[in-house]
Amino acid sequence: MKLHTIIAATIGAAAIAAPLVVAAPAHADTTAGDSIVYQFCSDTTENGVSTWYDGDNDLRSFDRTHLPSFRPSDGNYCGTQRDYSRSAYQLTGNSIQTYGYWASCEITVNGTLVASNAATGHYSIAECSA
């Protein structure tokens, strides 16, 4: 019982810390009217915390992240958040914590990939910023 509590506390701490990791990135070329697409992928459909900046530079998050799209090419699950910048200086960053062993993130601005990253390990967190 004690071990279960420690594991749960560790997982909870990682989930709380995940949104803080992408608190300061900015893509200097992203400005008002630009299209921003954040992609989140994992080896499982149900995942932990995901974070991203919306078009108003507000940090958004889901405590539990469901990735609805299965990719047969690699056997992973993905989901996206889309927005248009309403800011002269747009922050861009996203992250996801997997409940499995692999996670990745991507940021696309106006159709151009500007950041991508992946992480491996149980409950790992992938972070992107541009």
Report on the architecture of this protein.
This protein has one helix spanning 2-17, and strands at residues 35-42, 46-47, 50-53, 59-62, 65-66, 69-71, 76-84, 93-97, 102-109, 112-120, 125-129. With 130 residues, the protein is mostly beta strands. The chain has a single domain (2-129), classed as Sandwich (Immunoglobulin-like). Strands 6-7-1-9-10 form a 5-stranded antiparallel sheet, with no helix packed on it. A 4-stranded antiparallel sheet has the order 4-3-8-11, with no helix packed on it. A two-stranded antiparallel sheet has the order 2-5. The N and C termini lie far apart (42 Å).
Task: From the structure above, extract its key features.
130 residues, four-stranded antiparallel beta sheet, five-stranded antiparallel beta sheet, mainly beta, 45% strand, Immunoglobulin-like
Tally of discrete structural domains: 1
Output mean pLDDT.
85
Sum up the overall morphology in one term.
elongated
Fill in the CATH topology: Immunoglobulin-like
Topology, number of strands: 11
Tell me roughly what share of residues is in helical segments.
Answer: 10-25%
* Element order: H for helix, E for strand: HEEEEEEEEEEE
Quick recap:
This protein has 130 residues and is mainly β.
Layout of helices and strands, plus pairs?
Blueprint: H1 2-17, E1 35-42, E2 46-47, E3 50-53, E4 59-62, E5 65-66, E6 69-71, E7 76-84, E8 93-97, E9 102-109, E10 112-120, E11 125-129
